Amino acid sequence: xxxxxxRDWLRRSYRQQGPVVFxxxxxxxxxxxxxxxxxxxxxxxxxxxTLVVSMLPALxxxxxxxxxxxxxxxxxxxxxxxxxxxxxxxxxxxRVWWWDIALHGGSAIGFGLVGFLFMLMLFHGDRYAxxxxxxxxxxxxxxxxxxxxxxxxxxxxxxxxxxxMQKSGLVDTxxxxxxxxxxxxxxxxxxxxxxxxxxxxxxxGVIREFVRMNxxxxxxxxxxxxx
Length: 227
Hints:
Elements: H1 6-17, H2 19-37, H3 41-63, H4 70-89, H5 92-95, H6 99-122, H7 132-161, H8 170-195, H9 203-213
Helix pairs in contact: 1-2, 2-3, 2-4, 3-4, 4-6, 6-7, 6-8, 7-8, 8-9
């Protein structure tokens, strides 16, 4: 098995993952080294945890031979970085009032897309096998369900371990759920317009790119010979 130098590995990672992902990983490595050098053990732990968790999606897609658009993978890594490292270690949840709202909205859009794509896979990419509204509604329900389970998780952590993940309690929970519903609507709505051949760019473009990169998962897709 041929050995590669650190420089070659860095170049390959940069080309495969893109500059945003590479910058996040580099930042986490530097943060870990600085934290260890200054004996800030909790900071080092959070930085390492964030780095490991942000790499898991890459291992998952390689294991199951799924390809993700570079921008979509970058969004996942940035979300994990913003949630764990910036949110917890750098205390952005307290410093920036809209931080939690933005993360909930972004994750809901992502899960809406995941639910939509999963449903589309079940129909082998056939636009006419199920009504677009039904496929999109599944994506919407999937995203909202994930958001609801997260709120239950926060409640359980607060009750069992005495944490303050819910912050203002009911108000925080309901605000998060409303943002989840809005984000899920945007993600699933993009899928609906994709199936109606009325793509609006942006999120809809991510769907088309994912389908193009994973044609074997959409063997009956009428777009497979296109973009």
